[in-house]
Amino acid sequence: MEGNLIDLAEQGHFNAIVHGCNCFHTMGSGIAKEIKDRYPPAYAVDIGQTIKGDKRKLGGFTYTIVQGPAPLYWRFTIINAYTQYRYGKDGPHVNYDAVCSVFKGIQKNFPVHYSIGYPKIGAGLAGGNWDIIQAIINKELTKRNHHLVTLK
Predict the structure, then answer these.
(1) Which class is 5-148 in CATH?
(2) Is the Cβ–Cβ distance between 5 and 93 less than 8 Å?
(3) Contact, 35 vs 42, CB < 8 A?
(4) In the predicted model, what is the mean pLDDT of the chain?
(5) 19-30 pLDDT tens trace
(6) How far apart are CA 135 and CA 43, in angstroms?
(7) What is residue 68's predicted lDDT score, i.e. its pLDDT?
(8) Residue 67, SS3?
(9) Cα gap 42→55, rounded to integer Å
(10) DSSP 75-143
(11) Which pTM does this prediction carry?
């Protein structure tokens, strides 16, 4: 699917969106920055429920439910997936075991009817191999309606 992940969620395409985060409360670039800017509660749950720099965050996630104003009242869940410890230019930073753990947790903890959208988590700024990451996601989100969203 092509487009802006957040815009597509607002249009009702997804019940949840997942994006990769580091363990330092940054959300300073890429889709994470757009989420932080457009939906401050997603950032607030990151800093409010986790400890900055805590390696135990890897493979876990936080989430918040956001809702749009009248008359649309769209509603979806934003999942902050801790798929990398560090960030910056000295990568790659993605942790494939963390990606696996995150998606196992999503499979277990979110309703099976949820449609889930995500960008190339861990393959952009985190420097991971998308083929490996996509195989992990497909394996863990069995029998789920899930979609990769790429920018046009």
Answers:
(1) alpha beta
(2) no
(3) yes
(4) 94
(5) 999 999 999 998
(6) 28
(7) 85
(8) strand
(9) 20
(10) EEEEEEEE-BS--SSS---B-HHHHHHHHHHHHHHS-TT-EEEE--TTTSTT---HHHHHHHHHHHSTT
(11) 0.95
